[in-house]
Amino acid sequence: NDIRKYLHIFQTPGLPASSIITAVQQQDYSASVWLRRREKLEHSQQKCIVIFALVCCFAVLLALIFSAVDIWGEDEETEEECTSNCSIVLVENIPADLLFPDNTTFHLPLSAGLNNLLDKAERVVEIVSPKWYLNPSDDESNLLTRLQELKHKDIQLKITTGEFNSKELKDLERNHDAEVHEVNMTALAKAYSYLHSSFWVVDRKHFYIGSAGMDLESLSTRKELGVVVYDCKPLALDLHKVFSLYWGLEHKTFMPNFWSKRLFPFFNRDRPGNLTINSTQFETYISSSLFIPKDRSSDLEAISRVIQQARHFIYISIIDYLPLISMQRYWSGIDGLLREALILRKVRIRLLISCREETHPLTFNFIWSLKSLCLEEDNCSLEAKFFSFQRDGSLSGINHNRFMVTDRGLYIGNLDWVGEEFTHNAGAGLVISHPGNVAEKNFTVVEQLQAVFERDWFSRYANTLQTNKIPVCSKQHINKSVLSKSRIYMLSWSLLKVNHL
Ligand SMILES: *[C@@H]1O[C@H](CO)[C@@H](O)[C@H](O)[C@H]1NC(C)=O
Ligand SMILES: *[C@@H]1O[C@H](CO)[C@@H](O)[C@H](O)[C@H]1NC(C)=O
Ligand SMILES: *[C@@H]1O[C@H](CO)[C@@H](O)[C@H](O)[C@H]1NC(C)=O
Ligand SMILES: *[C@@H]1O[C@H](CO)[C@@H](O)[C@H](O)[C@H]1NC(C)=O
Ligand SMILES: *[C@@H]1O[C@H](CO)[C@@H](O)[C@H](O)[C@H]1NC(C)=O
Ligand SMILES: *[C@@H]1O[C@H](CO)[C@@H](O)[C@H](O)[C@H]1NC(C)=O
Ligand SMILES: *[C@@H]1O[C@H](CO)[C@@H](O)[C@H](O)[C@H]1NC(C)=O
Ligand SMILES: *[C@@H]1O[C@H](CO)[C@@H](O)[C@H](O)[C@H]1NC(C)=O
User: Where are the transmembrane segments (predicted)?
Assistant: First the structure.
């Protein structure tokens, strides 16, 4: 071997080569023992490190598991896209004292729609509502009575709410076997925050979503709009996932960093569900706000996409329009998109806003600002009207609709179009749109919603914003900002005059 050759060249006369070799071999041996020991030591050190890392990983994993919101239960269902056969109906609550012409089309009354859902229920009814005060009555079709009777049919009633200490819910829980989960929104969002979501999911198969909650006003004195969708497992399951998320937030005092995979949606705005609804092919998904697991589109993202897809018109019926966050910052979220649609894509926009005592006076300034964008611009049209209705001598915000409809699709949601609603509050929404390549359209739910909008728009209650008059909606704020407002009015008034000249 090499050492021998090496020694042979440098061999000193008088010393036997073998003894040198033995000495070297001994050194070699002890070196290798030392090396092996060292190796062993390093090996055990490595072991320690690996074990330590594993323990760390395990701890992190445990932390993740406990911080994630999980749904327990039999959730391993699939989308069943091919077999879905959804049908949809618009549901409305039109107060009795609201007068429309005789030939007006009305849709299924809300209470009838909800009763239909209860008729179809077999296993479980899940409800989220911002408010609860349904009065009991002897009427058989009374909603509260029907909810109370679910236990006799062995149907589970599950409710999540952001309201603590609702008497009605306490009663449902105590006497009627309902399961109620209260969600402390203030603790979760670390700010004033509300659970504004309003929907039902029945047997993960049928659902309702819309502006109406479970309160008397919603079911009688306010104008509400929503949809009831039957036999639509893929979408119902997606909405059920939103419900499950709220359900899992009971007793939680901080927002989880990670959401359970079971809360991830099937569909979102980039991967909408291709579903057949009333024998027409639609692209559809559920959006939500505040609590947004991976892949779920937020309400703002959904609204943005619907606005961006519109080619000809955008009709918006909403309670409040105020692109501000907590009166502190401008919120361009929706306002910016509308400006883009108006100026760059020449999409016609109509805004129907509820006129009520609480309407913030700056609403008018922002509407004027949008309107003035179209000055001297061809094919640029923004029209705004205020839906006002006097009841008992005061302007009540009777029009509680929260929807948008365009030539391509619709969005029905739970939130008002005010900055902090989208940044602080929880809601959910439904998007249904025609695929891009459809030219001729049947009179589907989208066109029906457009007709609803036009009915309200041309009704006697919708008043045009007049250039030289401060609308009377917001009496209570009027002297606070009357100065700055009159300045803006004068400005837009003079601009209009210039335009006329
Ligand atoms: C879908 O619904 C329609 C009308 O309700 C019915 O005629 C049809 O048989 C249904 N199809 C399936 C696959 O369930
Ligand atoms: C209702 O009748 C009025 C006139 O009586 C008519 O102008 C209007 O177009 C009708 N509306 C519908 C939806 O038929
Ligand atoms: C909700 O959380 C906030 C902040 O953590 C706390 O002050 C409040 O008492 C909680 N509310 C209820 C009803 O537990
Ligand atoms: C729906 O169809 C479009 C194209 O037709 C496709 O890109 C998309 O991935 C489909 N969505 C789902 C959820 O399969
Ligand atoms: C219109 O409805 C008919 C059946 O009512 C259906 O066969 C047709 O595909 C629909 N057209 C579109 C564009 O969806
Ligand atoms: C406005 O619309 C009309 C008709 O749709 C069209 O002929 C005209 O070119 C448009 N003008 C501009 C500036 O886009
Ligand atoms: C969809 O079909 C159902 C059941 O056939 C019907 O009641 C409903 O009015 C239809 N909805 C639309 C938007 O056409
Ligand atoms: C509005 O003005 C009236 C008198 O002009 C005054 O009494 C009232 O306090 C003012 N309200 C506010 C909010 O400033």
Answer: 48-69
